Amino acid sequence: LSADARTRSFWHWGFEEDFPDEAARGALAQMATALIPELGALRAVPLPRVDDAKLREPRIASQTPPRDRIIHAGGKGYRDILRAFRLDFAHAPDVVLYPERDEDIAAAFELCAREGAALVPFGGGTSVTSGVTYDGKRPVVCVDLGKRRRVLDVDKTSRLVRIEGGATGPDLEAQLAEHGLTLRFYPQSFELSTLGGWIATRAGGHFATGYTHIDDMVASLGMLSPSGAFETKTLPASGAGPDPNRLVLGSEGALGIVTEATVRAFVRPIYRASATVFFDALPRAVDAARAIAQSGLQPSACRVLDQNEALMSRVSGSECALVLGFESADHELVPWMDRALKLAVRAGGVLPEPARHQRGDRERKREGAADTWRSAFLRGPYLQSALVPYGVMVDTFETACTWARFESLDREVRAALEAELGRWGGGLVAMRFSHVYPDGPAPYYTFGVRADRGRELEQHDGIKRAVSDALVRAGGTITHHHAVGRLHARWYEGERPAPYERVLRAAKHALDPAAIMNPGVLLREE
Ligand SMILES: Cc1cc2nc3c(=O)[nH]c(=O)nc-3n(C[C@H](O)[C@H](O)[C@H](O)COP(=O)(O)OP(=O)(O)OC[C@H]3O[C@@H](n4cnc5c(N)ncnc54)[C@H](O)[C@@H]3O)c2cc1C
Known about the structure:
Layout: H1 22-35, H2 66-71, H3 78-85, E1 95-97, H4 102-115, E2 118-122, E3 140-144, E4 151-155, E5 160-164, H5 169-177, E6 181-182, H6 195-201, E7 218-225, E8 228-231, H7 244-248, E9 257-264, E10 266-267, E11 271-279, H8 282-293, E12 301-305, H9 307-312, E13 320-328, H10 334-346, E14 356-359, H11 369-387, E15 392-398, H12 403-422, E16 427-437, E17 440-450, H13 456-473, H14 489-495, H15 498-511
Parallel strand pairs: 1-3, 2-3
Antiparallel strand pairs: 4-5, 5-9, 6-10, 7-8, 7-9, 11-13, 11-14, 12-13, 15-17, 16-17
Helix pairs in contact: 8-10, 12-13
């Protein structure tokens, strides 16, 4: 594997080389003010310098260079970016380890048990729910899987691939491409996040239907826990008791370290079709998405964008949109797209341009609304970071609910968010569907507001509390794919069945008797 030559930023999303330069940041600030007039005049403060960061002395013997401790201090949610921007690294780990072998992981478990330290498994460090931020009293040992990034085995007959837990999206796609395969799993954090992290957080890719979560793709997995190896059997399906894979999926590093998994791969698609349908009102676009989600057509993209979302992603100036896409390695897509468009038009949509049908490998240049949307999607995280020096808070939250509940949920959530943003001068609210299911959508909200400099974390707390309370009150889940971490703990406790806490505690005790594994996620630290 060739290492990425780019330098990972110590504060913003992604790589230093890819961060917008000063002129681009200025233009972005202007665009933000045009989109959100409530922001008023914006003035940037200087960017932080890593050399100015002060770290506390490690509480256990440590050879870890300060920059490594800083990079592993947190994830990449708004709060993490803001804390790093302020050079607040009070929560940085004392030690960072990069195990190559299982024995090295076992040694990390022993070190933590001996020192009374917390062990935080770290994949790409892209958590947006404080999953890698241990703020408690114990010393912290961070275990980064960055040296375990290989594809170990390819079973082309069964289309199963065995991959190490530390492989990022680009790592594994480059290795699978040599076999004409793809995992076809693209979370927005694709560039940095890892297979082990996806499994630990039950991540969602950007395909709207079919295999949406990594859960659907895991045939078996291997986890090392302080009590020993936990390995499941590779099977296409099984009815033998509660599924052991499901205990590990979503375990967020609280039970052990996912070292590898055998996952379902695909032949690279060569047929693609895309189209954008416009609507004068959101309910009509929602009806269209529901009809398509319930039709059995399984589009790869079925993305409802409200007016602000369509504007931000440059798909439309003033209307709501439904971005549709299909892809296949096997067959032409004309009948599928035709039928989906019929359903969309019947719901009140307008199709200004005929659908685009393309044939060819992924290297072929593709254009069209689905691609415009996709490049904005991947660039988005840099923009969120670039607005921090201007004192603009941009963040997202997401949920899933039944179709029957969507309208009232959307109303309640917007009301709660707008009331809270109103306290800070008002701001922008945008919504899209990240995924759609026959029984309901996964709405994904973005907001932008002027940050109250120096009090951003309290401001963010207030907004997060208001919208999370509204989501849960209106019958949504606290998260469709952003995980629980520490940020969602309170709402997760209300969502899970009461006896399930005891079940989880018993599982944790069996696998992690000394309670060293990522204390505070899923279960309160005792
Ligand atoms: C800009 C941006 C876009 C995002 N887009 C998406 C998206 O489209 N879909 C989505 O689902 N999420 C998204 N996320 C959230 C995040 O990328 C996911 O939660 C992702 O799965 C985390 O993977 P990671 O490797 O970075 O894990 P980390 O952030 O390093 O860790 C997350 C959690 O998993 C645990 N963990 C990590 N690796 C392992 C392992 N090998 N074994 C056991 N536990 C482990 C950690 O201890 C922690 O609790 C996004 C985040 C950002 C910042």
